Records
---
Amino acid sequence: MGFFDLIWSIFLIFLMVAWFWVLIAVVADIFRSKDLGGFAKALWIGFVIIIPWLGVLVYVIARGDKMQEHNAQAMNDMEAAQKDYIRSVATTSPAAELERLAGLKEKGVLTQEEFAAQKAKVLAG
């Protein structure tokens, strides 16, 4: 087996992996499309299964913009969920914040005026 046979094999494996990646992306997009009814989804899945190369090509041409919108919406939903989770975990209760400020005042890190100003912020926000 020569060097060019090895390169050709690697290229074919790459094409096969890319093909499966696109096929999985198309099938996933068909199932998550809220704008397609059940019958339309069944037709697209049937088309992709019966004539895979043509089915995927036609789907990407016909609904490529919708695929991009679905991906963008999924990313926005994940980002919003992540931000909500971070906010829920990162925020401290006003009582805990006041307790922390009182500890800093007792240690002498905060003066009475600084403590009063921070306390007003915590109680206001």
Note: The two ends are 72 Å apart (CA to CA).
---
Amino acid sequence: MTRAHVAIDLGAIAHNLEFIRQSAPSSLLLAVVKADAYGHGLIPVAQAARAAGADWLGVALLREAVELREAGDTGPILAWLWTPGDPDLLACVTTGVQISVSSLWSLIEVTEAAAQENSIAHIHLKLDTGLSRNGASVDEWEELVLAAKALQARGRIDVVGIWSHLANASIESDLSVAEQRVRFLEGVAVAKQAGLEPQLLHLANSAGALAHPDTQFDLVRIGIAMYGVSPMDPSSVHQFNLQAAMSLHAKLALVKTIPAGQAVSYGSTWAAAVPTRIGLVPVGYADGIPRVATNAHVLVRGVKCAVLGRVAMDQFTIELPESLGEISAGEDVVIFGDASTGAPTADDWGTFSQTIGYEIVTRIGNRIPRNYQGSL
């Protein structure tokens, strides 16, 4: 019996992808599996997403794309975050991974890699429409597309797509979504005027695909919503019928009663007002439980149990109400999971920790094994 485990419901991933497909019926579906599939496990989730009908997979790093190919994935993959001299560029080009290009240096490097391998690099040009991260600025865009057109004519690259990323699709009625869409279409017009004819235009992330249908275009990139975590306000999980794919469980390591006045954990930030039965949960911030969490709770036998004091590196303490009856070490604790079970969600832990559900699921460390439920 392990001290803790993560349960991954692959059926929930399939359910969420199907809901999103129905919400964007005219678009291809790209399942984002970067960052070890948001902490859920790169290869099992990628296989489950393909089985559920995902047309594409998307990753941040070229190394992640290589791992997918090494695991046997032969379908379309897009990778979008790399630096000069990336050692995995050649492997991506030779195995048909499609690569995002945001600058002249990256356009030149990917073309040189294709020439070295006597191959063709399939690329997606990225325009920065307002997020101000990756992507060519509006001022640099025409120069980039003209260079891409010239290099495409030489037969070493194929401009498959043009894309951008929304900054504020998670904020309902935010005008910047409409503004970014206009800038995106203006950028596409510049590219087409230069002679490029991309097959795929894509702008929408999870929030865009669900809340802003006019951003869907040819392909939608679905990240956090695939995992059943809210891409917007936490209540949108229910609005969009999303199911949490990850739940985090631990076994109580110790049960005891402390006297009134006894403090718990480092810094003595909480002390018992009356004799209190407590339980020791053997996971901590080294496993990804946020140390800053306040007013947090977990679930034991369907009962909410408050987290007491500070989360430590390997453990934290909870109150065990008398309503639980007799209880001992080895009892299951649900730290977070699907709201339908009564458990706190990853979004709830985001609220406890003044962050978002995305961070909660991606930070659960590899000291905790993943157990997969449902077929691949």
Note: The first strand starts at residue 4 and ends at 9.
---
Amino acid sequence: MTTTVHATEANFESLVTDSDILVVDFWAEWCGPCKAFAPVFEAAAQKYPDVKFAKVDTEEQQGLAQAFGVRAIPTIAVFRQQVLLFAEAGALPAGALDELITQARSLDMEKVKAEIAAEAASGEHVHGPGCDH
């Protein structure tokens, strides 16, 4: 039984909009590390029924992969309340994926959204979770 959603360009925006927390796995059928990560991702989806898990086949959904700047797979992305909190290439061990979900749950999203609004107003970049610069 699968507990993940097949994400496409047609349903991706609604997945982000309708999910408090959305974890996305960008993958491809030919990718060995992606196949190795799949059971970890599926186990997390079963472990966290309140979190939405989606998989994006980068071969089939090249536009989505391009929109997120996916250059290596697997790439994991985490959204909370429509805010991209994390996006990084590489398969995560189960413990690291658990930690990522725990961190996403514990964030004060009002504070995060206030920082984003302040950044937009000032034109400065605020370094937040998952920021690599």
Note: The mean pLDDT is 90.
---
Amino acid sequence: MYRFLDRPLDQLDEHLHFLVSAMRHWTLVTRGGRCACRALAPAFAWRGVSAALPDFAAAMGAFDREGKRWLRFGTATARTVNDDEAVLLALIDSAMRGERNAARRIAATLVTEPALGRTVTAIEWVALRFLQAPLAQRDGAPKQA
């Protein structure tokens, strides 16, 4: 978590920067009573990670409805990672590294026990989709002579 805390967004890995923006946008749209999946779909499609959106939405919903505490997200224009965003980035980073036990420990601080397993699974799927995206882009790129 501490490696992400107060870090400028432009110094994050592209995927993590995108996910912070998506978290902020999900929160803003949801609080406004609109469908977050519909609002986020174009951005996820542009990044080539549309398959991650349902799991991202499920995890965000679990944090929102079954959270142990209220999570705070920065405004869309905030330039640095705040405390709760840093915790979620540590969770996602653990999943991206295949560190399931670490991801589970972090998630256990965020959601209630009934939501824990499915939240970790959703985050693992998000991580997998983001890790696969560069491969799909590379594999789908035109071959150079």
Note: Residues 9-132 form one domain.
